[in-house]
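Input.
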Amino acid sequence: MKSSSLTIWLDAARPKTLPLAIASIVCGSAVAGWQGSFSAVIAGLALLTALLLQILSNLANDYGDAVKGTDNDQRLGPQRAMQSGLVTPGAMRKAMLLNIALTAISGLSLIFIATNNLQDMVGFMLLGLMAIVASIAYTVGNKPYGYRGLGDLSVLMFFGWLGVAGTYYLQAGQIDSIIMLPATACGLLAVGVLNINNLRDIDNDRECGKLTLAVRMGPEWGRKYHLFLLVGSVLCLALFALLELHSPFGWLFILSAPLLFKHGKQVLQSADGAALRPMMATMVKCALLTNLLFAAGVVLAAA
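Output.
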């Protein structure tokens, strides 16, 4: 069957978006290592769980937008698995259920290994359940929050605050408010990826009733908002380096500034959604590079 083709399912998983999940775990683990609390086992399980959640979100997004008719011939982005007819709705639902099971196994293993009291165990179970529900409810259901302009906040929470701060807490066993600076930076960069997607598809989304934040703001303010995301992420990392690292290595992330500036300029000058098509991959690369440079700087500053 075509729908069982490995290539088709790999495309449905959208591997090009997975660096966003990787970045949050790497950042959280780097800060934990800076505090002398790095655990390879916990970091590895956190990474696996984050990747599975990202894939679940991608599969659910494919399913939800196809069922609602948002993925249509007018959409400027790449053709999705269900939209193309290569994967049936039933097959996609089965894939989502399998992914949920794998995510639960990985997440529970992480929680049982990393937590040492009932309060933390229950707390992270609830957070994990929230993450699974959020991954699905973005486009699936009668009132998907992605159609109401809440996707950006969700990405900030799960790819930033929970991804980075949660990974740090599971290794360090404590939370420090200062961790929210790199967590917010990581989240803002991930929101930037979503914003490019939403700016690209703004006309089709509006026609289909998908009221993303970009649709609500309009293309001009959506582009200015994108610049805010880029600048905000750099400022958060700079403040963390200034307050905590006290080492030239802590400023390694600045090496990505020229790429971020160039990308931001291109977005501001883009004429329409079609001009934004190649910028999705660029934004993912910018986000990954900035986060990896920050993580490397944190590790080197601690050496």
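The mean pLDDT is 92.
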